Amino acid sequence: MDLNIFDELKKLQTIAGAYKEWSSYRHKVTEYIINNTTDFESIAIFGAGKCNDIDLNILESKFEKVILIDIDMSSMKEGINQYSLVDSNKIELIACDFLGIEDSEYRDYEYLVKKYFFTNTNNLSSRHKILSLLDDLTAKINKYPLAFGEDAYKNSILIGVHSQINVYLQRIWSICLQITGEGDNLAIEKIKKMNDIVAKKLNAAVIESTKDKLFFGYEMGMEGQYGRIEGAIQAEHDLELRLESGLINFSSEFKLLWPFKSDCKYVMRFICISKNKVLEDEEFPNVHFDAQ
Q: Which residues contact 119 (CB under 8 A, 6 or more apart)?
C-alpha cells in the first residue's frame, strides 16, 4: 500500500475556508468568553492554531496580553497575520507540544499497522509489535513533562483540543480497517487509555496555570449521529471528577453547533470554571497518572 496515511492526515489539519465559514460560531464563542471574564490582564489560548474559532481582534482589544500556545508555530503566525495583528505588542506566541510523540514514531506505527492489515506474513509478530509500540508510547506520554507554570495566566481557553491531540493513532488504524473491511479493534482500547492520560495531564496543567477563569470547550457528539468523540469523552470525565472532588468551581455553560465542515457539524459544550486552590493544594499534591 503506497498511501502515506500519516502525512495525508497532517495535511487535513488545515480546513479550507474555516475562517469564513466559522464566522458566526467564532463570534458567539468569543462573546461568551468576554461576557464571563472579570479580569482582563491576560488570556492564554491553548491549542490556538490559526484561531479560526476565536476572534483574536476582539481578545486583543480587551486583554492586556494574549498568549497563543500550540505545537505549530507557522499556524499561529498565519493566524495573527489573518487578523492583521503581526505588529501588536499584546500578542505572544509559544510553541509547545502537549503530547510528546514524534513524527517518526507515528510513521513506525503506520508501517506496522499496514504490515498487519495488508500482508499475510508474520501477522502474529506484527500484532505483538503494534501492542508493544503502543505500550511504549503510553509510557512515554505518561512521563512527558507538561507544565505551564502555576498561575502563569489570568485566564485561559482550551477549546476543541482534547479530540485532536492524540488523533493520528486511531485514524491510521480506522483508515486501514475501512480499506480492508475488517472489524479488528486490537489497538483501540490502548488508544483510549492513552486519551485518558492525555486528558488528565492537559487539564491538570492548564488548570494549574490559570489564576482566574478557564474556558473549556469540547465536542458532545456529531450532529445527526450517535456516539461520543474520543478525547472529548475523557476530558469531560476528568472535569466531572474534579468538580465532584471540589478541585474546581463551575460558573456557567452553553451549547453551540460548530460547523466544522460542510458534512460534519459538532455539538459543542462550553463551560467556565475556576480552580479551588485550597483544596487542590491540600488534597492532591504531586498528582501522577497511572499508565496501567
A: 126
